[in-house]
User: Fold this.
Amino acid sequence: SQTIHQWPATLVQPVGSPLSLECTVEGTSNPNLYWYRQAAGRGLQLLFYSVGIGQISSEVPQNLSASRPQDRQFILSSKKLLLSDSGFYLCARDRVGGYTFGSGTRLTVV
Amino acid sequence: AQKITQTQPGMFVQEKEAVTLDCTYDTSDPSYGLFWYKQPSSGEMIFLIYQGSYDQQNATEGRYSLNFQKARKSANLVISASQLGDSAMYFCAMREGLASKLTFGTGTRLQVTL
Assistant:
């Protein structure tokens, strides 16, 4: 199984509050993991990717950070949310022939 | 420069008809892969079809086929016999060389009508 678990499904947070989105994966060990964000009606923007425990690469400067404390766990965080952090966040893992995506978290910052 | 370009923000097709969704790409790497994903209103990303740059034949998966024109750098998705359930956003994506990152286009919203 290459299942990806993401939670929560939806989240409404006030500006300035912290954020923690968790993604856990099943299947083969040491997967490449990714966080994407999708603004309303737009394409997917790669935020972070990780090729192993403790290894994080950031694609765009932003208010967010990522961590990979365990092989199958990928966490997206923020200390203080901005309105512009609203969007649909998708976790993905690499597999032969493409990605498997989680079901996503719809974040609304108010 | 955009690596993946989808020029059709929205498309309409009648049920049972075929539809082509356009995708052009830009890369200097001789080894790359092209993907199409479907995103229904629920938000999940569903893998549809994959084409490798060295594949000699166009990829097909059921009602989906990829019209790969390497010289033109295009990888259009063809959906045959459209169904109401095909209504969704469709994204073209590319992976270059040894990198595992996927770059996505901005998507095309397909609406299938009766």
Q: What stands out?
A: The CA atoms of residues 4 and 25 of chain A lie 4 Å apart. The interface with chain B takes residues 32, 34, 36, 42-46, 49, 59, 88, 90, 92, 94, 97-101, 103-104, 106 of chain A (CB under 8 Å).
